[in-house]
Specification:
This protein is an alpha+beta fold. It has four helices and seven strands. Helices cover 20% and strands 30% of the residues. It is globular and about 55 Å long. The structure holds coenzyme A. Its EC number is 2.3.1.259, 2.3.1.48.
């Protein structure tokens, strides 16, 4: 699918990702990320195995396409005590591996050991088809994740990693009041080259950081 330009005013609707989205979901991931994700990851997304997701579709496209993904966000719930700063998005990356020593992200979120049930929501992937960018679609998708996280009483934060050169995404997270709490040196290895990542956090339900932001 290549949508080069849209000549109409789109009407964007948000819904969960479903099995019929599999092919287009894989295609958009291949188009927008510098890495390849394993098919197991996509199967887990569309079958809702430990992953929650939202799709953006443009209802004003012609009939055949009016339910086709033009954006997505995927996330999963992790136990704060088991989460690691150095943990890569899932085990899906084949050319991208975590390089930073693992540290408990719970430590960065005032994890309370007397509350072992505390959870976090980790954003795995977020993307919008190029022709639909700068219309607030990623903002709406992230808002869905934040709403979802806030609705879970044990959840203390939404967090994610972003590669240090991804200016558009960094602006987006800052604009949405995510806090940058760590820079992880050489976190990503892509085609033999190391890249730093930033760890961004959005606190919910009274979660907060024990350290000052970068
Ligand atoms: C990052 C991405 C998801 C943004 O999607 P989007 O729907 O265009 O984002 P929005 O329209 O909601 O943008 C909101 C804010 O993001 C920032 N932003 C978005 N695109 C930007 C750009 N090209 N340059 C600088 N800031 C940008 C701005 O702060 C913008 O607010 P503004 O319009 O008031 O300036 C999209 O560019 C994308 O899919 N990129 C490739 C995949 C990717 O990098 N995913 C994130 C991995 S961590």
């Amino acid at each position: 699918m290549v949508i080069s330009k849209i000549c109409h005013r789109p009407t964007i609707r948000y819904r969960p990702i479903q099995p019929s989205d599999l092919e287009i979901l894989e295609k958009i991931h291949a188009d927008v990320f510098p890495i390849r994700y394993e098919s197991e990851f996509f199967q887990n997304v569309v079958n809702e195995r430990d992953i929650v997701s939202w799709a953006a579709v443009d209802c004003s496209r012609p009939n055949d396409n009016n339910n086709e993904l033009i954006g997505f966000v995927t996330a999963r719930i992790v136990l704060a005590k088991e989460s690691e700063v150095g943990l890569l998005r899932f085990k899906e990356g084949t050319t991208m591996v975590p390089q930073a020593p693992a540290a408990q992200i719970g430590d960065l979120l005032r994890y309370d050991p007397s509350r072992p049930d505390q959870t976090l929501v980790y954003i795995l992937t977020l993307g919008v088809v190029e022709a639909y960018r700068n219309r607030g679609i990623a903002t709406s998708l992230i808002r869905e994740v934040i709403k979802y996280a806030a609705s879970i009483s044990t959840c203390r934060a939404v967090y994610l990693h972003v590669i240090s050169y991804n200016i558009a995404a960094i602006h987006l997270y800052k604009k949405m009041s995510f806090k940058c709490i760590r820079r992880l040196q050489g976190f990503y290895l892509i085609n033999g080259q190391h890249y730093d990542s930033y760890l961004f956090v959005y606190y919910v339900n009274g979660g907060r950081s024990p350290c000052s932001p970068l």
